[in-house]
Specification:
The chain has 168 residues and is mainly beta. The chain has two domains: 3-37, no CATH class; 54-162, Domain of unknown function (DUF427) (Metal Binding Protein, Guanine Nucleotide Exchange Factor, Chain A, Beta Complex), CATH 2.170.150. The chain is built from one helix and 15 strands; from the N terminus they run H-E-E-E-E-E-E-E-E-E-E-E-E-E-E-E. It has one helix at 3-10, and strands spanning 14-18, 23-28, 31-36, 40-42, 45-54, 58-63, 66-71, 75-80, 88-92, 101-103, 109-110, 114-123, 126-138, 151-154, 160-164. The strands form three sheets. Strands 4, 5, 8, 9, 10, 11, 12, 13 and 14 form a nine-stranded antiparallel β-sheet that branches. The protein has a three-stranded antiparallel β-sheet with strand order 1-2-3, covered by helices on one side. The relative contact order is 0.16.
């Protein structure tokens, strides 16, 4: 949303744009909300937002010493909601080794992104419960959410996810 559009919408709210940080700061009634330029905002709560970006590096995911996924086409999700969340890297599902992802019965819903399907990871004789997820029913309030379609992310408590960059 542009500064002008938000001013028209909010009528009387003081708005200033800070290009150095690529944010728009809005102060109203002794409160402050930060809207990040090009972010996907929750339709009912501007304080809950995320940014989706194509990763510029090569991503690998390991369980122990076994590489279970590799991608040069990952999407980085950075989200702010009730707190600042660690970023997640979403890898195309077909870039994960076959037979590693085992659908579980666990599911969650995010009001910003949609509904997840969780996966256990089977690596050799080790099974990691609910260690990966995929948004299988994305919200429709912003078409950019489709960048997550067909991609999985890994719980970093169980999976080492690394990004390497090639120097030019």
């Amino acid at each position: 949303m542009s500064v002008e559009a938000y001013n028209e919408y909010s009528k009387g709210v003081s708005v200033s744009e800070h290009h150095a940080h690529d944010t728009i700061v809005i102060a109203a009634d002794h409160s402050q909300v930060t809207l990040v330029k090009d972010a996907i905002h929750h339709p009912d709560d501007a304080r809950h937002y995320m940014v989706l970006e194509e990763s510029r590096g090569h991503v690998t995911a390991y369980v122990g010493d076994v590489m279970i996924a590799a991608s040069s086409q990952s999407i980085c999700l950075k989200e702010v909601g009730y707190r600042l969340y660690d970023h997640s890297l979403y890898i195309l599902k077909e870039e994960v080794l076959p037979d590693v992802l085992i659908a579980s019965d666990f599911s969650t819903t995010c009001e910003l992104k949609g509904t997840t399907t969780y996966y256990d990871l089977q690596v050799g004789d080790k099974r990691l419960i609910n260690a990966a997820w995929e948004y299988t029913a994305l919200k429709d309030h912003d078409p950019r959410l489709n960048m997550l379609s067909g991609r999985v992310a890994f719980n970093r408590e169980f999976v080492d996810v690394n990004v390497s960059y090639v120097k030019k």
